[in-house]
Amino acid sequence: MKKLLTGAVLTVLSAAPLQAASVLDPYLGNPGDCYTRKYDEAHLRDHPRQMVEIFSLAHHDSYQDPQGELTLKFGFTTRNGRDYEGIAICKGNACRVEGDGGAFTLKPSNDALRLDVNAKRGMAAEGSFDFVELSETDDTVFLLYPAARGQCIQ
């Protein structure tokens, strides 16, 4: 009887998902899911303190951290053409950037996802030569729209 019960428990545990479902799954829960925004010249002219010209956020296809509900990758290009990227681990709609890189939240906003940089923790990302902190600029809120896989960070 003990063997039968142990076998039943193992069967149930092996059928359980490795990660809990995330409230972000309908938007970024599947490989290929991504959101992006390329700011036009008029927007950048109206926001001279904004550094980010292009921002993208995607499901992390090759890795899902078991400590979170959803692992995302993000990247952005600044006005000077430098690229930065990072990985975020999300629980609910709150995401923390790996490597003590700050935090952000995501929430649906009509046909977009709104990314709000955490006011206290900020949000940082690494580039080839340096890193950048977004909380010190006019880059604290991004409206990101669904995009084809090739338009987002790979």
Account of the 3D structure:
The chain has 154 residues and is of the alpha+beta class. The chain has one domain. It has three helices and ten strands, in the order ααβαβββββββββ. It has an eight-stranded antiparallel beta barrel with strand order 1-2-3-4-5-6-7-10. The chain is globular and about 40 Å long. The termini are far apart. The N terminus is likely disordered.
Q: Which structural class should the secondary elements be placed in?
A: alpha+beta
Q: What topology, given as strand order, has the largest sheet?
A: 1-2-3-4-5-6-7-10
Point out poorly predicted stretches: 1-17
Rg of Cα set? 18 Å
Our count of helices gives 3
Helix content: 10-25%
Report the order of strands and helices: HHEHEEEEEEEEE
What form results from the Cα inertia axes? globular
For the terminal residues, how far apart are their CA atoms? 51 Å
Mean pLDDT: 86
What characterizes the major β-sheet? 8 strands, antiparallel, barrel
Assembly category: single chain
How many β-strands, per DSSP? 10
- As for the number of domains, it is 1
- Tell me the β content: 35-45%
Topology diagram in text:
Elements: H1 2-15, H2 25-28, E1 34-38, H3 41-46, E2 52-59, E3 70-78, E4 83-91, E5 94-97, E6 103-109, E7 112-117, E8 124-127, E9 131-133, E10 141-146
Antiparallel strand pairs: 1-2, 1-10, 2-3, 3-4, 4-5, 4-8, 5-6, 6-7, 7-10, 8-9
